[in-house]
Amino acid sequence: MSLHGEVYERRLIWRHRLGQCFEWMCRLATMTALGMLVVLLGSVVVTAFTPGRGKGLAAVSLTTTGQSSPEEMFKVSNIMGGHFELKEKPDARISEFSAQQIRDNQVMFNHDRAAPVFDLKITSPGREPVTVIDVRPGNMPKDLSVPDVHPPTPAKPHGWLTLGFLTSFNSYEPTEAGILAGLWGSVWLISLTALMVIPLGVGAAIYLEEYAKPTRLTKLIQLNIANLAGVPSIVYGILGFTVFSRMFGLFDSQKTVLSVSLLILPSIDIPLPFGKIVLTGACTLALLSLPVVIISAQEALRSVPASLRHAAYAIGATKWQTIWHQVLPAALPGILTGVILSLSRAIGEAAPLTVLGIAAQLSYAPGRISKISDIVQHPEGLLKAPFDTFTALPIQIYSWINESSPNFQHVAAAGILVLLATLLTMNSIAIFIRQHFQQKIRW
Amino acid sequence: MALVKRFTQFVEPPPSKPGVAEGASANEPTQVPKIETRKMSFFYGTKQALHDINLQIRDRAVTALIGPSGCGKSTYLRSLNRMNDIIEGTRVTGDVLLDGEEIYDREVDVVSLRKRVGMVFQKSTPFPKSIFDNIAFGPRIAGLTKKSELQEIVERCLNQSALWNEVKDRLKDSAMALSGGQQQRLCIARALATNPEVLLMDEPASALDPASTARIEDLIFELKQKYTIVIVTHNMQQAARISEMTAFFCVGRLVEIGQTKQLFTNPTQKETEDYITGRFG
Description:
The complex is a heterodimer of chains A (443) and B (281). Chain A is α+β, with helices and mostly antiparallel strands and 443 residues long. In chain A, 52% of the residues lie in helices and 12% in strands. Chain A has helices at residues 6-49, 163-167, 180-211, 216-228, 233-245, 278-302, 306-315, 319-347, 351-356, 372-377, 380-384, 393-401, 407-440; strands at residues 60-64, 71-77, 83-88, 93-97, 106-110, 118-123, 131-135, 143-146, 256-260, 268-272. In chain A, the strands form three sheets. Chain A has a four-stranded antiparallel beta sheet, with no helix packed on it. In chain A, α1 (6-49) crosses α13 (407-440), α3 packs across α12 (393-401) and α7 runs antiparallel to α8 (319-347). In chain A, 32% of the residues are buried. Chain B is α/β, with parallel strands linked by helices.
């Protein structure tokens, strides 16, 4: 070992090289993480803005499923839209099958009585019929293919994230599907969650940090809160289901409805047990985010310099005044950070809501408030909303992903973008508030 | 009677009694001490930090506490307004009397005690609020809400701490924007706002440059006409300049208390002499 001379010089070069290697490894890690995020976001954006397969005719093939049965089943595959017109010849009765009805690629009709003969007419909207097939019992085409006559016009050529998507409820038609119910549901859900979790979390943190004596019990509670922060969200779902949704089965399976009338305000119907209402979801998500809020608020309170407390005490402030006027404002930015983080996690949670069994798709928003003007028109909706059934953004997205029609994948991607945008909006509002408070507080 | 006296002091500090500060020795019974500790001991858990401190602090005078680091002088200072209560597991035995009344009695309200005995810390700790709100905080939490009264108090205290002319145009600005010396004077003004009788200062100038230190010293010189001041300092020149009485602490014991001039020129204890001549500590 020499601290100078050739050996030292050689070692110095290696030390520098090692440092460079380390820096590159860190850089690589950052770039990998960044790359993954870009790929993830990119794929969602691309899917959301890719035009879907449109209506019109693609290759059509008809297959009979059997002749012995009185019911003829036609298997129609590869049809993206258009009309099937089954015309019963004798009395010219027309039954129309819209694209929705042949969604499952099966058309079923009964023809056992008069042995009717059908014309199967395949049309594309706004066009002349292109194929007319004579269909009668015993004359079923075994395997009939209709060539691609009309190239499909793409659906939603400007992408799926449109104003219509944001302002309409869900539909079986992917091009008509909207996210309004989920958007309002999530807004209600997260507002109620925040309303519950902020006072509970901050209150608990203040008690544990400022008032509780460091006994063994306090330490045990601390440890358990830290553990709760790591409990999988689905477990909270089960808890919420038992406690809020079913209420331990204390009430009849048939819903009791508690009518609460408030002086001037219209009476509110509260279902007991809660069932699948917004409040159930909000309580569950509040429990889910509570540990993180408590821990981060404690951290924030702990980081307030002791000198500040001492200064307040020395002036003759009571403990409460010290906490309320000095410690809490100073800790507020840190507390808000924790609240934002945990609420961001909560808004994207699908698992606990799935366990609660909330509706995947609804065609109304909680309290029947689906636009701002509705609040003016029937303000009682604001009171009713927490006790109304609902759906949420992640649940809606999840149900779209499970749809068979490929166009729903685009709808799901657009939904994910809405969810991300909601998150970003929430975070930026919170960051704005935090900046506002931080400007006031300069150490 | 004591209550009436305290009340009048709250409303308006009585005029200073001239001629008392000079020429009186610590243990002369001519004057009732403002603060007195008798056989006072202090414990952090099981560790004893102060041993049987007998000390009398004169009204309307500056008493300096000097001694090497860790000698207990700050602990002593902080026990005079029960700031040590905040620390878990601390214990005081013996008597600590303010105007002849035990401050560690069960029925004494710490909050009103601290209103009477203000404190300025080594590190200036302005609240992260405006200059006005910093000073108005004390009166406000005590229940004073009238804007005109608060304004009056803020102006009086800033004048007393010689800060008014520097900040009168920016009372709404953050106190954090002030310089170190200004911040410390703000803290003094803030401590004055609740109209205390005693000011405890824990090395108030140790983090400041010489110019700011000089201003603080001038300020203390002004304030001692109205307030009883106890100051902990590491700077012996400072103690010599501003104080009437000096107490020398060493390893949790009060070694010597005497008039400043006498203690610095003719100490009775060997330890004191070693310390002030720089041979120790």
